[in-house]
Every structure is written in structure tokens, then in C-alpha cells.
Amino acid sequence: MKVRLLLLALLLPAVAHPAPKTRLDVFAAASLTDAFDAIGRGFEKAHPGVRVRMQYGGSQALAAQLEQGAQADVFATADDRWMLYAQQRGLLDGEPVTFTHNALVVIAPRSNPGRVGKLPDLAKPGLKIVVGAESVPVGAYTRAVLRRMSQEAEYGAGYGRSVLRNVVSQEENVKSVVAKVQLGEADAGFVYRSDVTNAAGRLLKVWEIPAALNVIANYPIAVVAHSAQAQLAREFVDYVMSPAGRAILAREHFAP
Predict the structure, then answer these.
(1) 175, 224: one domain
(2) How far apart are CA 247 and CA 115, in angstroms?
(3) Is 75 inside any structural domain?
């Protein structure tokens, strides 16, 4: 019996076990979710045997995780402030590069429960507004925009203070702002233009902020220090900057 089993084992072809995939860990700002999901798939297709694992969150939260020893290979933020924070603490390998830009818009539920007709209406008492926390890039940009708007006669000197008095929630990332507005938990919110995706746009009303009063949000990217996949991380950064990566970013409403 043992002899027959041995002969059978010799005759059967060996079972091929697929080689384990090389993993690349990318920490990216929450506003990059849709774009980087698509970029990750494109990079995997161009690099057989590689699996890209994304972790999204507020830029400030991701920077803190890196500082506390979290393992990552690539870091992409929604502003220069948190990239500089990481750089000053020796968390990066090489210089960051800016790969895209963004700007702010105001959104409201399609049903418009707050009866917002134009941007000056955001200062109406009793309105429920949700914004990013001040430490979050979208929150810092929101406050910068409100300061600019307050210098214009159309809005008035007290405009920014009145809008901030209407804030009922300060979120740790922009996706939470979008979600609360979509769910009708707020009458309006400040988000990035790229957050108004085709799917989200069907559920939202959108007001463009005049270009002269808006901000240009920089998005830098860098390889993380002591990455276990440093060369592959550099190739990922190159892919983000490539025509293929830029095309994806443009499709998701980021500015070149």
C-alpha cells in the first residue's frame, strides 16, 4: 500500500503555489481615495506581483501615525504643512514633490433644507454647517477662504465669524464632511472640488467659490524613510506623476 501511494505521489504533478505578492503601503489624504484607488490598480497592472495597500485619513492623523512608527512606503498629503511636519522629523526619504492641486466648494443636500441660495446665506443664524477641524488641511483652507470672503463688501467683515458660529461639527477628514451633508445632518459644508464625484453630485447642490477668494490646495507626495520597498515606492511616485496618473487625477476633478 505504501509503495502504491509513493508511486502515485511521484506520478502526480506538483501543486504550484503562487509566489507571495510584494506589498506597497501607501498613506494618503482622504480626499485622494477615489483617485488613488484607481492609481493603485493601474500600478499593480503595470507591476505584476505587487499589491498596493492604501490607508486613507486626515493628513494630520497619518503624519502622527508615521511619527509613532507606523510602517508605510509612500506618503501623500492634502497640504504642504503636514508634509513639512514629516520632513522636519526625518520621516521622509528625499524631497517631496507636488503632484496635483485642489480648490474648495460649498455643498448642501439636494433637498437644501437650509434654503441656501447663495454663499452669503451661509451666515444666516440657525444654519447647520460642518467643516474640517482646523488641524485638518480642508479645515485650514476653509478658514483661509472665510477670511478672504470677509474682506469683500458682498459678504461683510463679520461674515467668517458668523459662518463659524453656525458650525455644528468639525471633522477629522473631508470624507466625513461630505458624508454628513449627504445624510442631511448638516445644511452645508466646505469640501474639495474633487469630492463632488459623479455619484455624489446627484445627491448634492454645489456652489463654486470665486477664484479670487478661493485657495489652491497643494498635494505633495514622498517616499517614507526606512521603507522596506524604497525603489518600488519611488516607482509609485513616478507613476502618480506620469501621464497615466495625471489622467486619473484629472478625471477625479483634481487640477493639474
Answers:
(1) no
(2) 37
(3) yes
3-state class (DSSP) for residue 235: helix
For residue range 46-69, what is the model confidence (pLDDT) as tens digits?
Answer: 999 999 999 999 999 999 999 999
pLDDT score of 199: 78
Reference 224, options 105, 66, 80; nearest CA is: 66
Instruction: Note if the pTM is more than 0.70.
Output: yes
Closest CA to 52 of 72, 66, 80, 70: 72
Residues 66 and 90 in one domain: yes
**93 and 44 belong to one structural domain:** yes
The predicted pLDDT at position 11 comes to: 52
| DSSP 3-state of 212 | coil
Does residue 170 belong to any structural domain of this protein? yes
- Please state, in angstroms and rounded to a whole number, the distance separating the CA atoms of residues 33 and 55: 9
Asked if residues 99 and 219 have their Cβ atoms less than 8 Å apart, the reply is yes
The amino acid at 183: L
Q: Rg for the chain (alpha carbons), in Å?
A: 23
Q: How do residues 177-189 score in pLDDT, each as one tens digit?
A: 999 999 999 999 9
Instruction: For 134-190, write each residue's pLDDT tens digit.
Output: 999 999 999 999 999 999 999 999 999 999 999 999 999 999 999 999 999 999 999
Q: Sheet holding 104-109: strands in order across? A: 167-171, 129-132, 188-192, 104-109, 204-208
